[in-house]
């Protein structure tokens, strides 16, 4: 089993540290081929250790060794759901949450560097450090104009997180050949059913699947 959650879906990784947030989103179970990596402590620990090692290499920042407890597991799943809501809210799709999203109460350290730039460095302990890292990466991605390209697949049975590289940022499926064609076929069958119910005789062109 791959402990890189995004690799299970064959999606392009988001740039730099944003890939950590994308990987958290992709720990969720997807249809029949990808179990929930936060479903039990052993799988979650393997995923987290691998994800933090990768983030540390990419960001050139040290990552702590986080050993997960049962309460940490709940925190991780809540973080995942929160970021799903943030992304869905940003795309105008239903987030499943009413009103504004809750504030991110996490610590960060602002470090002035030799070249005069101020760097955001995650702070805190345990999963609060992880939350700090994730929110920091979200903020950096928004400042860099990358955030709108991190999306959840429009197939509600999939919801894989993908980084949209299309020129006009119009992608809605993590994989057009699977989720896209499945949705097109479903819509085609629904149109044919409705036309049958109304007695319509117009020809219907079958989608390319």
Automatic annotation (TrEMBL):
Pfam families: ABATE (PF07336), zf-CGNR (PF11706)
Domain annotation Zinc finger CGNR: ranges: 149-192
Gene3D superfamilies: Jann2411-like domain
Classification via PANTHER family: BLL6575 PROTEIN (PTHR35525)
Protein name (record): Zinc finger CGNR domain-containing protein
The organism's taxonomic lineage, starting at the top: Bacteria, Bacillati, Actinomycetota, Actinomycetes, Micromonosporales
